[in-house]
Design brief:
There is one protein chain. The chain is an alpha/beta fold. It has a domain of about 150 residues: P-loop containing nucleotide triphosphate hydrolases (Rossmann fold), CATH 3.40.50.300. The protein is about 30% helix and about 25% strand. The chain contains eight helices and eleven strands. The protein has a six-stranded mixed sheet with strand order 7-8-9-5-10-11, sandwiched between helices. A three-stranded antiparallel sheet has the order 4-3-6, covered by helices on one side. It is globular, with a radius of gyration of 18 Å.
Protein backbone atom coordinates (compact mmCIF):
# COMPACT_ATOMS: atom_id res chain seq x y z
CA UNK A 1 0.00 0.00 0.00
CA UNK A 2 1.10 3.54 -0.73
CA UNK A 3 -0.20 6.65 1.07
CA UNK A 4 -2.14 9.17 -1.02
CA UNK A 5 -2.32 12.92 -0.45
CA UNK A 6 -4.76 12.47 2.45
CA UNK A 7 -2.42 10.03 4.16
CA UNK A 8 -4.66 7.03 3.52
CA UNK A 9 -3.18 3.88 2.03
CA UNK A 10 -4.13 3.03 -1.53
CA UNK A 11 -3.50 -0.30 -3.30
CA UNK A 12 -0.33 -0.50 -5.37
CA UNK A 13 -0.89 -1.59 -8.97
CA UNK A 14 1.40 -4.51 -9.75
CA UNK A 15 0.26 -5.02 -13.34
CA UNK A 16 -1.57 -2.70 -15.71
CA UNK A 17 -2.59 -3.90 -19.18
CA UNK A 18 -4.01 -1.42 -21.68
CA UNK A 19 -5.37 -2.29 -25.14
CA UNK A 20 -3.17 -5.37 -25.44
CA UNK A 21 -3.31 -6.96 -28.89
CA UNK A 22 -1.37 -9.79 -30.47
CA UNK A 23 -1.48 -10.92 -34.09
CA UNK A 24 0.14 -13.73 -36.00
CA UNK A 25 0.08 -12.74 -39.63
CA UNK A 26 -3.37 -11.26 -40.27
CA UNK A 27 -5.01 -13.27 -37.50
CA UNK A 28 -5.75 -11.51 -34.21
CA UNK A 29 -5.15 -13.80 -31.25
CA UNK A 30 -5.67 -11.21 -28.50
CA UNK A 31 -7.94 -8.19 -28.93
CA UNK A 32 -8.22 -5.15 -26.68
CA UNK A 33 -7.28 -6.83 -23.39
CA UNK A 34 -7.39 -4.36 -20.52
CA UNK A 35 -7.21 -4.91 -16.74
CA UNK A 36 -5.32 -4.03 -13.56
CA UNK A 37 -3.97 -6.29 -10.84
CA UNK A 38 -3.15 -4.95 -7.40
CA UNK A 39 -0.04 -6.03 -5.54
CA UNK A 40 -0.58 -9.36 -3.78
CA UNK A 41 -3.68 -10.31 -5.75
CA UNK A 42 -4.16 -13.70 -7.41
CA UNK A 43 -5.90 -13.76 -10.80
CA UNK A 44 -7.21 -16.90 -12.52
CA UNK A 45 -7.34 -16.73 -16.31
CA UNK A 46 -10.18 -18.88 -17.65
CA UNK A 47 -11.36 -19.76 -21.14
CA UNK A 48 -11.75 -22.65 -23.58
CA UNK A 49 -8.84 -24.00 -25.61
CA UNK A 50 -7.74 -21.41 -28.15
CA UNK A 51 -9.12 -18.48 -26.17
CA UNK A 52 -5.67 -16.90 -25.75
CA UNK A 53 -4.75 -17.78 -22.16
CA UNK A 54 -1.23 -19.01 -22.88
CA UNK A 55 -0.65 -16.25 -25.42
CA UNK A 56 -1.63 -13.62 -22.86
CA UNK A 57 0.81 -15.00 -20.30
CA UNK A 58 3.61 -15.10 -22.86
CA UNK A 59 2.93 -11.47 -23.76
CA UNK A 60 3.00 -10.52 -20.08
CA UNK A 61 6.28 -12.40 -19.68
CA UNK A 62 7.79 -10.51 -22.62
CA UNK A 63 8.11 -13.62 -24.76
CA UNK A 64 5.86 -12.44 -27.62
CA UNK A 65 5.70 -9.13 -29.48
CA UNK A 66 2.46 -7.21 -29.03
CA UNK A 67 0.86 -3.81 -29.24
CA UNK A 68 -0.65 -1.90 -26.36
CA UNK A 69 0.89 -1.30 -22.95
CA UNK A 70 1.99 -3.65 -20.19
CA UNK A 71 3.25 -2.03 -17.00
CA UNK A 72 4.90 -4.16 -14.31
CA UNK A 73 5.01 -2.15 -11.09
CA UNK A 74 4.85 1.00 -13.19
CA UNK A 75 7.60 -0.08 -15.60
CA UNK A 76 6.46 -0.30 -19.24
CA UNK A 77 9.89 -1.02 -20.79
CA UNK A 78 9.95 -4.56 -22.20
CA UNK A 79 13.77 -4.72 -22.27
CA UNK A 80 14.45 -3.27 -18.82
CA UNK A 81 16.34 -5.95 -16.81
CA UNK A 82 14.83 -4.62 -13.58
CA UNK A 83 11.36 -5.37 -14.91
CA UNK A 84 12.42 -8.85 -16.01
CA UNK A 85 13.80 -9.56 -12.53
CA UNK A 86 10.37 -8.98 -11.04
CA UNK A 87 8.79 -11.64 -13.28
CA UNK A 88 8.62 -15.38 -12.79
CA UNK A 89 7.10 -17.47 -15.59
CA UNK A 90 6.20 -21.16 -15.51
CA UNK A 91 4.81 -22.30 -18.85
CA UNK A 92 4.26 -25.67 -20.46
CA UNK A 93 8.03 -26.01 -20.83
CA UNK A 94 9.86 -26.53 -17.54
CA UNK A 95 13.15 -25.01 -18.78
CA UNK A 96 14.94 -27.72 -16.81
CA UNK A 97 18.00 -29.50 -18.15
CA UNK A 98 17.07 -33.18 -18.38
CA UNK A 99 20.68 -34.42 -18.38
CA UNK A 100 21.43 -32.60 -15.13
CA UNK A 101 20.35 -33.64 -11.66
CA UNK A 102 17.82 -31.69 -9.64
CA UNK A 103 20.58 -30.15 -7.53
CA UNK A 104 22.69 -29.28 -10.59
CA UNK A 105 19.70 -27.51 -12.16
CA UNK A 106 19.22 -25.37 -9.06
CA UNK A 107 22.93 -24.56 -8.83
CA UNK A 108 22.96 -23.56 -12.51
CA UNK A 109 19.95 -21.25 -12.17
CA UNK A 110 21.24 -19.77 -8.91
CA UNK A 111 24.45 -18.80 -10.68
CA UNK A 112 22.49 -17.54 -13.69
CA UNK A 113 20.30 -15.34 -11.46
CA UNK A 114 23.37 -14.38 -9.38
CA UNK A 115 21.72 -15.34 -6.12
CA UNK A 116 22.98 -17.35 -3.18
CA UNK A 117 20.53 -20.15 -2.35
CA UNK A 118 21.22 -23.48 -0.68
CA UNK A 119 20.03 -26.07 -3.24
CA UNK A 120 19.56 -28.71 -0.55
CA UNK A 121 17.26 -26.42 1.43
CA UNK A 122 15.25 -25.64 -1.71
CA UNK A 123 14.89 -29.33 -2.55
CA UNK A 124 13.74 -29.99 1.01
CA UNK A 125 11.13 -27.24 0.73
CA UNK A 126 9.79 -28.67 -2.52
CA UNK A 127 9.77 -32.26 -1.26
CA UNK A 128 12.58 -33.47 -3.48
CA UNK A 129 15.50 -34.13 -1.08
CA UNK A 130 15.74 -37.83 -1.95
CA UNK A 131 16.00 -36.94 -5.66
CA UNK A 132 18.81 -34.42 -5.30
CA UNK A 133 21.28 -36.35 -7.46
CA UNK A 134 18.69 -37.93 -9.77
CA UNK A 135 18.66 -36.89 -13.43
CA UNK A 136 15.63 -34.79 -14.32
CA UNK A 137 14.91 -36.98 -17.35
CA UNK A 138 13.90 -39.75 -14.93
CA UNK A 139 11.44 -37.54 -13.01
CA UNK A 140 7.69 -37.98 -13.03
CA UNK A 141 5.47 -35.15 -14.24
CA UNK A 142 4.77 -34.08 -10.65
CA UNK A 143 8.45 -34.06 -9.69
CA UNK A 144 9.34 -31.98 -12.73
CA UNK A 145 6.57 -29.53 -11.91
CA UNK A 146 7.80 -29.13 -8.34
CA UNK A 147 11.37 -28.57 -9.48
CA UNK A 148 10.25 -26.17 -12.22
CA UNK A 149 8.31 -24.14 -9.65
CA UNK A 150 11.36 -24.11 -7.39
CA UNK A 151 13.42 -22.81 -10.33
CA UNK A 152 10.84 -20.13 -11.06
CA UNK A 153 10.74 -18.94 -7.44
CA UNK A 154 14.53 -18.92 -6.92
CA UNK A 155 14.98 -15.20 -7.67
CA UNK A 156 11.95 -14.28 -5.50
CA UNK A 157 9.82 -12.77 -8.29
CA UNK A 158 7.18 -10.21 -7.36
CA UNK A 159 4.89 -11.21 -10.24
CA UNK A 160 4.35 -14.93 -10.90
CA UNK A 161 2.81 -16.20 -14.15
CA UNK A 162 1.60 -19.81 -14.19
CA UNK A 163 0.28 -21.54 -17.31
CA UNK A 164 -1.91 -24.57 -16.51
CA UNK A 165 0.30 -25.64 -13.59
CA UNK A 166 -2.04 -28.50 -12.55
CA UNK A 167 -2.10 -30.24 -15.93
CA UNK A 168 -0.89 -33.84 -15.76
CA UNK A 169 -0.61 -33.95 -11.97
CA UNK A 170 -2.19 -36.66 -9.84
CA UNK A 171 -4.44 -35.77 -6.91
CA UNK A 172 -1.58 -35.67 -4.42
CA UNK A 173 0.55 -33.51 -6.70
CA UNK A 174 -2.34 -31.15 -7.38
CA UNK A 175 -3.06 -30.78 -3.68
CA UNK A 176 0.59 -30.02 -2.91
CA UNK A 177 0.79 -27.44 -5.70
CA UNK A 178 -2.40 -25.73 -4.55
CA UNK A 179 -1.01 -25.52 -1.02
CA UNK A 180 2.24 -24.06 -2.34
CA UNK A 181 0.39 -21.45 -4.40
CA UNK A 182 -1.74 -20.51 -1.40
CA UNK A 183 1.46 -20.10 0.65
CA UNK A 184 2.62 -17.47 -1.84
CA UNK A 185 -0.74 -15.70 -1.99
CA UNK A 186 -0.65 -12.17 -0.68
CA UNK A 187 3.14 -11.95 -0.84
CA UNK A 188 3.47 -12.49 -4.61
CA UNK A 189 1.13 -11.17 -7.29
CA UNK A 190 -0.03 -14.16 -9.34
CA UNK A 191 -1.76 -14.82 -12.65
CA UNK A 192 -2.67 -18.43 -13.37
CA UNK A 193 -4.25 -19.89 -16.48
CA UNK A 194 -6.38 -22.91 -15.66
CA UNK A 195 -9.35 -25.00 -16.81
CA UNK A 196 -10.28 -25.90 -13.23
CA UNK A 197 -13.18 -23.59 -12.38
CA UNK A 198 -13.69 -24.60 -8.75
CA UNK A 199 -9.99 -24.33 -7.96
CA UNK A 200 -9.90 -20.93 -9.67
CA UNK A 201 -12.63 -19.56 -7.42
CA UNK A 202 -10.90 -21.00 -4.33
CA UNK A 203 -7.45 -19.57 -5.12
CA UNK A 204 -8.11 -16.35 -7.00
CA UNK A 205 -9.15 -12.88 -5.90
CA UNK A 206 -10.10 -12.01 -9.48
CA UNK A 207 -11.23 -13.98 -12.55
CA UNK A 208 -10.34 -13.07 -16.12
CA UNK A 209 -12.47 -14.92 -18.68
CA UNK A 210 -11.37 -15.00 -22.33
CA UNK A 211 -13.20 -16.17 -25.43
CA UNK A 212 -11.70 -16.00 -28.91
CA UNK A 213 -8.99 -13.66 -27.66
CA UNK A 214 -11.47 -11.19 -26.19
CA UNK A 215 -12.02 -10.28 -22.56
CA UNK A 216 -15.49 -11.39 -21.51
CA UNK A 217 -15.24 -10.72 -17.78
CA UNK A 218 -12.79 -9.36 -15.24
CA UNK A 219 -13.76 -9.11 -11.60
CA UNK A 220 -13.98 -10.90 -8.27
CA UNK A 221 -15.96 -14.12 -7.78
CA UNK A 222 -18.39 -12.14 -5.63
CA UNK A 223 -19.36 -10.13 -8.73
CA UNK A 224 -20.68 -13.21 -10.51
CA UNK A 225 -24.49 -13.33 -10.76
CA UNK A 226 -24.59 -17.15 -10.77
CA UNK A 227 -22.41 -20.10 -9.75
CA UNK A 228 -19.11 -20.45 -11.58
CA UNK A 229 -20.10 -23.15 -14.09
CA UNK A 230 -23.22 -21.30 -15.28
CA UNK A 231 -21.44 -17.94 -15.25
CA UNK A 232 -18.53 -19.34 -17.27
CA UNK A 233 -20.79 -21.14 -19.77
CA UNK A 234 -22.83 -18.01 -20.53
CA UNK A 235 -19.68 -16.01 -21.28
CA UNK A 236 -17.87 -18.59 -23.35
CA UNK A 237 -20.68 -20.15 -25.44
Amino acid sequence: MKPNETGKSIPEVALRVENLQFKTGLISILKNIQFEVQKGEAVAILGPNGSGKSTLLKCLAGLLPHTGKIEVFGNASRKDPLRKQKLGYLGHETFLYSKLSAKENLIFYSELYQIDRDPDAVLEEFRLPASSNQLVETFSRGMKQRLALARTLLPSPELLLLDEPFTGLDQQGSQWLEEKILEQKGTITMLMATHELERATEIADKLLILKGGRQMFYGSPTEMDSEIHDFYRVRTN
